[in-house]
Design goal:
Number of helices: 8
Radius of gyration: 16 Å
Shape: globular
Distance between the termini: 38 Å
Oligomer: single chain
Helix content: 40-55%
Strand content: 5-15%
């Protein structure tokens, strides 16, 4: 359940947040979930998106948070369906909620940008993913690690950050040494083979 007791306790205990602020943001999330229908998604609804997009959960960080890997550079954009890609990511996020151990309310998102080019940068899809991160799962993602840095990553970041809320910006690490930075929170043996490799 998205709004489980651990989650509600966590957001209400964050410093500098009033109950009114929390309620406002929770209502925004509820509305986003209604509009997108993410709570009712089934694997059958996103079969193509799961097959065509390279996204998967793999183990946990040192704090017990599940880790979602996305590898946009591996996706064939000639056959990709951006709506299916978006829904598949939402479906995986819903599955990730079930992976969280008791007391854990957030996950780690890793974006392996190796091989990503302009063909992988779809503006409508990017806007949907930003809404997903900043509204749909705003307090369910602890950290977003993106790398390695390239011209497309730099341009995408420049575009995206103008629309981002501060709380989302603060979660994002764009790095040219993503494997080393990831190893700060994840045991090296738990990082999937091939991630960030050419």
């Amino acid at each position: 359940d998205y709004f489980d007791a651990d989650f509600l306790t966590s957001i209400l205990s964050k410093k500098g947040r009033t109950q009114e602020y929390c309620l406002e943001k929770l209502c925004q999330t509820v509305e986003w979930r209604k509009q997108t229908g993410v709570g009712g998604l089934t694997e059958a609804d996103v079969t193509y998106g799961l097959q065509s997009a390279c996204m998967f959960w793999h183990r946990f960080d040192r704090f017990g948070r599940p880790v979602l890997y996305t590898r946009p550079g591996k996706q064939d954009m000639k056959t990709a369906d951006c709506e299916q890609t978006f829904l598949a990511m939402c479906f995986l996020m819903e599955q990730g909620l079930k992976l969280m151990p008791p007391g854990v309310v957030t996950c780690i998102l890793v974006i392996d940008a190796e091989g990503a080019g302009w063909q992988h940068f779809d503006v409508p899809l990017t806007r949907k993913i930003m809404a997903m991160a900043s509204i749909g799962y705003r307090d369910r993602v602890e950290r977003i690690i993106v790398g390695p840095v390239s011209s497309i990553v730099t341009a995408a970041w420049k575009f995206c950050r103008t629309f981002m809320a501060k709380n989302l910006k603060d979660k994002i690490l764009i790095t040219n040494t993503p494997k080393a930075d990831l190893a700060q929170i994840i045991d090296a043996k738990d990082i999937p083979v091939g991630v960030f490799d050419k």
